[in-house]
Design a protein that fits this description.
Largest sheet: none
Number of strands: 0
Number of domains: 1
Organism: Bradyrhizobium valentinum
Oligomer: single chain
Number of helices: 7
Distance between the termini: 43 Å
InterPro entries: TPR-like_helical_dom_sf (IPR011990)
CATH superfamily: Tetratricopeptide repeat domain
Helix content: over 70%
Low-confidence stretches: 138-142
Shape: globular
Protein name: MalT-like TPR region domain-containing protein
Strand content: under 5%
Order of helices and strands: HHHHHHH
Length: 142
Amino acid sequence: MFYLQVDDFTQAQSCARQLHDYVASAPDLNHLAQAHGLLARTALGLGDSAEAQLHLSRALEIVDNADFPIASWQVYRTAAEIFAKYGDVDRAATYRLRFVETVRRLAQNFEPEDRLHKSLLAVLATRTAQLEAMTSLPSRPA
């Protein structure tokens, strides 16, 4: 979502709420998981940890019980970010690994020369490095 990329969390939250309201009454759990994931990311950006945890738990409940790889990789990335931000390094690492596994599985659906395959692997490299930096322990003073 563009507004997340430019750190306009208020506008991102508004769009995520619209998506949530639109899909909440439909039997579309894939998009509902994505909506909760977006709401979790916007709450994180706005500094509302309780709201972030609430929407993250709702998103994880959906993706952990269904095969929605498009929603899953985004929700797992968000989970890794949230847990890293709040100091739960072990859970952040768990969700970082789930993110990696899911993106790799998606990439395998395409031939190695396909643009989507290359794009997914590029996202994987970039986001994994960011997530690893967030979950790395500070070095000890000598």
